[in-house]
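pinned: reference chain
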Amino acid sequence: MTTMLKRRFGRTGLEMPVFSCGGMRYQDHWEDLGWDKIDTDKQRNLEATIERSLEAGINHIETARGYGTSELQLGKILPTLPREKMIIQTKVGPAKAEDFLTAFNRSMSLLGLDYVDLLAFHGINNEECLETTLCHGGAMEAGRQLQREGRVRSLGFSTHASCSLITKALATGEFDYVNLHWYWINQSNWPAIKEAEKQDAGVFIISPNDKGGKLYEPTEKLLELCAPLTPMAFNDLFCLLRPEVHTLSLGASKPSDFDAHLEALEHYDRAAELVPEIEHRLLGHMTETLGADWMARWQDGIPEWNDVPGDVNVWEILRLWNYAKALDMIPFGKMRYNLLGNAGHWFPGKNAGEFDEAALSKSLASSPFVERIPAVLREAHTLLWDKPVERLSKS
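pinned: its structure tokens
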């Protein structure tokens, strides 16, 4: 059996397994329903998944108030397990202190626990959410109260925000850890991770398998270029080569979903050799396909989505187009592209179905590819547009 690696989770002092058991894939319903609505077989699957997680040494169980019946179902097994051997995290959305406490109390009632090790302000995705958390009478005041009462050990936040906002939030020094996106196909949040290191905050990577490229269904091109590793193992080891990264969330839907990641750890001692070789092949193929100049400078001068006429999320669309064109990652691109305009502050901005080319070009004046980008956006829309898709979680 592979020995689970652990890392100090910043100033929380927790010895965190490098893989965490994320709780948004194994629950029965995305609606917040009662126990009478839970399918018996699905509850058995959830419990078997938790048991397999703990057997593998993955003792960090992570869920959220917004994950439908996840907390309810976990509440049937967590109280039966040795509490001192587990690290439990839940997440509650930013709100006024009173409302935040009400939601937290609901979480604890469902989980059947006296305390959680980690509580995250769920979805600090924009300035308004950060202000709601830190203002007088805001969620942080409730969080500090819960710490004083011994019901919460450490406070952090989860985020899909821009790197600048994440960095700003961490720089306040108010948060013990952060749940954020960072993996091979999207490394834009690295400055925020370095700020977390400066603040001695724990770093939890969200969705390295799904948002990280739908790696559970890899393209033939990815399989070819990542050999002898699987794309999933390559991504795991790419992240874990950075000591600033402490744990990767595995959104398991069944017990066997841990197996491929445990196999990745078997290559951990050779990661420093294997990962750069594979990355060199991937980048080489992308450069050959897209051009060296584009690969080197496509991000230059791209404004954030809310500074683009029509709120077109140009940066994200170009990123998805890059991987769809060069690595055949069209299913992944469609999964993300069709969310644009339908996911609120969790995945902001709009797709490229309609835009004013003259106004768009003016906003892209600092880009070396200002003349090329409108055509790329149109191609991306043709390649990736299917139909509007909503987030599973509405929180």
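why pinned: The chain has a mean pLDDT of 95. Residues 28 and 42 are 6 Å apart (CA to CA).
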